[in-house]
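Practice problem: predict the structure.
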Amino acid sequence: MRFTDHRPWLASGAAAAIVAAGMTAAAAPSASAAAGCQVSYSISSQWSGGFGATVIVTNLGSAVSSWTLTWSFSAGQAITQLWNGNYTQSGANVTVTNVSYNGSIPTGGTASFGFNGSFTGSSNPSPANFALNSVACTAAAPTSGSPSATASATATASATSKPSPTPSPTPSPSGTATSGTPTVAADGTGKYTTVQAAIDAVPANNAKPVTITIKAGTYREVVTIPTNKPYITLQGLGSSASGTVIVDNHSNVGGYGTAGSASVFVEGHDFTASNLTMSNDYGVGSQAVAANVTADRALFSNVRFLGNQDTLLVNDGARAYFVNSYVEGTVDFIFGGGTAVFNACSIYESRSTGGPVTAARTPATQTYGFLIYESTITGAANNVTQLGRPWGPAAQVLYMESTLSATLATAQPWIDMSGNVWSNARFDEYKDTGPGATINSNRPQMTDAQAADYTPQKYLAGSDGWNPIG
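Answer:
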C-alpha cells in the first residue's frame, strides 16, 4: 500500500539542461599550467573479461576551458562504453574529451566519468601515463592497502569483485580521499563536516556547476538538494562507491510518510552523483526510501542505492539516468511516476521470499516510464522475484537486453497491485537473456519495430533533447 506524501514543498521536475547553461566546451582546449593534474582511478566492478571503472581528474594548474585526458592501457585492455563524454582508442592509447556536464575545470576543480571495459588475461586493468591537455598527471594519494603512486602516474587500481549481492546497508568506509582538501570530510579535514552544510553554502539560484567532493566515510544525515540549487554534483572520493555513504533510517511507520522518509532528496535540476552510496538502514517492516528524486535531468554514475521496501523513488516529472550503478531492495524498490533509464546496472532482490522490483506509476499521457537496459537482475533465491507491478494503471516498464537470473518467477513475472491489473499496464521485455528470460503468455515481448522507439536516448530526450549518454 502507498501513502500520500505530506510534504507540499516537494516540487515536480524543473527545467534547463546543464549543457545549455553556458557550459558548452570551447573549440580547442586551453593549456594547463605546468603544475599538471592528479588522477584517481578505481575499478568499481569486475567480471570475467570485463570491468567497470571510475576516473576522477583534479586540475592542479590554471583553469582549463576545455579538456582532453589521455592515458595508455596494457595490452588487451579496451574501453567498451563511456558515459557523458567522447573517447577514442588507438591500440593502447585512449583519449577522452569533455565530459558533457563538466566541460571546464577550474584550478583545484575536478571532473569525473565512468566506463566499462574489456581485458584479456588474468591481470587487473591498470592504465598509466595520464595527461591533462598534454601535461603529465600524478596519481592520487594511494588508497589503504594499495601500492604507492609513481611519477609515471600508473593509476592505483584496486580491483573488486562484481557488486556483491549482499552488501551491508551501512558498509564500512573503504579507501581514503584523494589528496587536497575535500569539500566534506567527517573527520574534520574538509571545509565542512556534513554534506548538507556544503549544500547549504551553495548560493541560491546558482547558474554555474558546483562540485562537492566528499571524503570516504559514513555520513549519517538527511541530505536535501533544494529546487533553487541546480547544477550540484556530489562526488565520493573513496576507492569505490561503498567508501562514501550517506545514510539515515527514517520510515513511513516513523511518521515521515513514504516519500518523506528518504535519506537523500534530489530536487535541484541538473544534479549529478558519482562514486558514493545512498542508503536507508531502517530495516524491514515499513517503506523507507534511500533516495527521492524529483529533479529533472539527474545523473547517477557508479552510485549504490541500499534499502528494503521502496529504496529508490523517481517522482512524476523527473528524468533520471542511472549508469554503472547498484540498486538493492525487497518490495517495489524502484518506484514512481517519473522517467528513468538504468543502463549497465546491477539490481538485487535481497529477500529470500522475493518480491517485485518495480512499481511504476507512469501517467497515461507519458510515453516513457522505466527502462532497465543492458542490466543484470539477481536475487537471494530462485523463482521468487517479479519484474514489477503497476502502482498506477498505465505503468510503463521495459526490460531491454538485460540478463535475468534464475531469481525470476518465470511463469508470472508481472503481478497486479491495488486493483491495477498488470496486463492492462505497459509492461514489456525485449531480447533479455539468462535463465530467467523465458517467454510465455504472461511475458509480453516487444517487436524490433516497437523497440526502435524505446531506446535510452528516446526515454530521456524530452522536449529539450537531453542526452546524458553521449
